Structure formats: structure tokens, C-alpha cells
Amino acid sequence: MSNSEVIRLQMFSEWPFREDCQCTPELMAKAGFVHCPSENEPEVACCFYCLRELEGWEPEDNPWSEHAKCSPNCAFLCMKKTFDKLTAIEYFQLEQEWLRILVSYIIVSPAVQSSLRDGSRLV
């Protein structure tokens, strides 16, 4: 789980929106996003926690609002404090929920489904 805002910010080196925008790399990282561009979509961002991908960003888009609109139950958005202020129990509860999300994401991934259908080993 990339709960480090600094690490998330580093992933926005090729982000197309910079100054005079609502969705600067700094605000995107603060809102929980990592930059995960594709060849066809250079401005795709994914929440490190809920794994929701958002594309089609415009300079006036607010990262917090867009995140809340598309993923209102994201535990990262619902936190009322930063990671460094969490108790050990709160942190492990978040970590447990994140692992549940990750496993669900992997299970429904097309590559995993294809491997399960044709009997290939997942490596």
C-alpha cells in the first residue's frame, strides 16, 4: 500500500497538468492518486487504496471531489487523520481492508480469469 504521499508524488513526473490547474501532481498525490498512464490515455490516475481508476482529467477537475464522486466509500477518503496519526489498530484495520480490495481486484482481473479458464499457472 503506497500510503506515502511523497512516493505517490514521484509517480506524477509525466503528468500533463502542472501550474494553474486544480489537478496538479501535488494535489493528485495528496488526494491518494498515483499516475498510471497508458499509451492511449496519458492522464489516468488510480487511487492507491480503493484502486479506482479515473481518466479524462481536465485542468479544472478537483482531485478530492472527483475521487469522492467515483468512490465515496474509499477508506482513504473517509479517514479523518493522516497515516502518521493512526493508531496501530486503525492502521492494521485499513491494511486488512486494502488487502481485501486487492484480492477482489486480482480475482476479477481479465488475466486471472483467462488463466483460470485455460488452466494456466499463475506465476
TrEMBL record:
InterPro entries: Baculoviral_IAP (IPR051190), BIR_rpt (IPR001370). Its main location: nucleus. The keyword Protease does not apply. One of its GO terms (cellular component) is spindle. One of its GO terms (biological process) is cell division. GO terms for molecular function: metal ion binding. Pfam families: BIR. This is Uncharacterized protein. The lineage of its organism: Eukaryota, Metazoa, Chordata, Craniata, Vertebrata.
